[in-house]
Amino acid sequence: MSSRQAAVINGLLAENIGKNEIVRQNEARAIDAEQRAWDAEHRARMNERAVETAEILRSKIAKMQYEERQQAIARSKLIDEKAELEIQNEFYRKLLSRPMKEIADASGDFKKTYEEQQMLLADWILTQKAYRETAMKLGMELGKTPEQVREMGIGNINAVLENKTQFGSDASTDPTLSSHAAAILAIRKKNGKA
What we know:
Elements (H helix, E strand, L loop, with lengths): L2 H94 L3 H7 L1 H34 L4 H16 L13 H16 L4
């Protein structure tokens, strides 16, 4: 090989080495650009996810704020309802401490029951007065004074309460009297009437 040929080959090699360097630099830039593009795309995807997450969180926050307002409204209603119920409770407490007739006058539902009970009580009182009248007449026929007949009746009260009557008039024969007999007898004993 001649020196000229060697020079041409060396020149071509030098030129080729320069071109190869340019190709390598361009390839490096292309790889770098591709990496930056991939990084940018990755950041964009991450930003999209962040935006989606932010939207989800914003939606959840809005829902929680709405629920909190609804709970505050419900709490306020419950407080108002509690106050109203306390007022009603106080009204009924005071009402129930009054005589039955006043309660009946204030409550239509109770009035019917009260009137029925009053009728039963009136009938019972009538019967008691009739028995008393009969006892007084019989006592007078036997020569007893009204005071003596009354004393006999008082003595019979204790016999009824203690279930010691001669003719089956014991307290145990009536459920209402039976459930109160012991208390009535205790009061009578305390007051010296038994």
